[in-house]
Amino acid sequence: MLEVSTPKALGRRGWAPGVLRQHAVLMAVVIVALAIRLYYVQTAVVDHPLRGDAGQYFTYARNIVHQQVFSIVSPEEGAPIADNFRDPGYPTFLAGIVALCGDGEAFYTTALDVQAILSAFTVALYALLARRWLGFRSAVVTSLGLTFWPLSITLAGFLLSETLVGFFLAVALWSLQLGLERGTRTGMLISGAAFAAAGLTNAVLAPAAPLLAAVMAWRDKARRTLWICLLIAATLPCAAWILRGTQLPPGLSSSSRIAMNFVQGSWPEYHSAWIASIYRNPNAQATLGLIDGEIRLVHEDRRAGLRAIAERMAREPMRYLAWYASKPAELWGWSIGIGQGDIYVYPTYRSPLSGTGVLRWITDLLYFANPFLMLLAFAGAVITLATWKRREPVLALAMLLAVYATAVFTVLQADARYAAPYRGSEWMAICVAIAGLAGWSREVRRRPRLRDARHS
């Protein structure tokens, strides 16, 4: 049974034997998480790892280091021209590794090792948060869930941004918790900077912290200064990047990428057509041609493009209604839609999660349990937000961020890959749901005994 501890109980300090044992258990789980991730990235072999999104990120990183320009244009294709098609956080992260290791094999292996370490740190931060908010047993479940969750492992083995986003988000939540507990501006500034880093790595998160901080600065007068610190630190870096975008010549931009994702996400056939097109299926290629045509139309004439999308949906309203209603399950589901499928974005060989042994057994178990886990997480998020006044505020925020991300990706593209940074919130929601079910079960068992006591 999982407990939901009160904030007062979670705030006790000391080095009592029980506390030491709890820290030792959580530390052991984190060490296991680190060992699994390092073993995975050093064992699994990705076929042509610098393809698709990863190839674009690598091109940006090389241009930052060698050309001092943020551009998607490969130097082999001509002079790089500044753009803001991709968010700058992950290319800058890769650029730091390129600057240290060059852009050969040492870069690739170092990047994966660093991502494995960041992923393990993310497990540690959510373990600490869950212990603070929900109690020790919930912290164990949350940390174990993240430790063995397959996509949390495999994404560390691709040059993709989700691992870094998840780390920044965990740092932001932990720093916010400490900043509010201790009333320190430093904690709030660090939290705001981490939220900004997450937003600059994936723009979906960019508005979240400034909006929260603005609302809380208005409502929470006693801690207004702290919330203003969060607002400033979370807003200024993103605002600077937006200002840079206004100075660029017309071309590839973040708005064109959003439009592309919106159009692609409005087609129920997109994922299946994308996969089939790899095998030269003519029907799939024709479907992708129609999708590309809508993307061009939206880019050239936004009103005409949106009107064309609306007319397409109006011809089959129930089909599209069902499609959008199913997209949250697509987001929090198991299989990656745009990629190799299952738990892999790119073709991967010698994966410990797909071979034989304990990791394969755990992966299979989680595969069958995932629909049930999704239902528990949904229930836990509803319970947390419905009872937010009795919860730690940052716990409610973590759930709210997951709900917000679900709404955004439902409108745009929904893929299991994109939910990876929010899996810590999911596992804490699962713990809340289990605690709620346990409490309800105790209440049901207690009622007959109370009736018997009254009649005796």
TrEMBL record:
<keyword id="KW-0812">Transmembrane</keyword>
<feature type="transmembrane region" description="Helical">
    <location>
        <begin position="188"/>
        <end position="213"/>
    </location>
</feature>
<keyword id="KW-0472">Membrane</keyword>
<feature type="transmembrane region" description="Helical">
    <location>
        <begin position="225"/>
        <end position="243"/>
    </location>
</feature>
<keyword id="KW-1133">Transmembrane helix</keyword>
<feature type="transmembrane region" description="Helical">
    <location>
        <begin position="146"/>
        <end position="176"/>
    </location>
</feature>
<dbReference type="InterPro" id="IPR050297">
    <property type="entry name" value="LipidA_mod_glycosyltrf_83"/>
</dbReference>
<keyword id="KW-1003">Cell membrane</keyword>
<feature type="transmembrane region" description="Helical">
    <location>
        <begin position="424"/>
        <end position="441"/>
    </location>
</feature>
<feature type="transmembrane region" description="Helical">
    <location>
        <begin position="365"/>
        <end position="387"/>
    </location>
</feature>
<feature type="transmembrane region" description="Helical">
    <location>
        <begin position="20"/>
        <end position="40"/>
    </location>
</feature>
<feature type="transmembrane region" description="Helical">
    <location>
        <begin position="114"/>
        <end position="134"/>
    </location>
</feature>
<feature type="transmembrane region" description="Helical">
    <location>
        <begin position="394"/>
        <end position="412"/>
    </location>
</feature>
<protein>
    <recommendedName>
        <fullName>Dolichyl-phosphate-mannose-protein mannosyltransferase</fullName>
    </recommendedName>
</protein>
<keyword id="KW-0328">Glycosyltransferase</keyword>
<keyword id="KW-0808">Transferase</keyword>
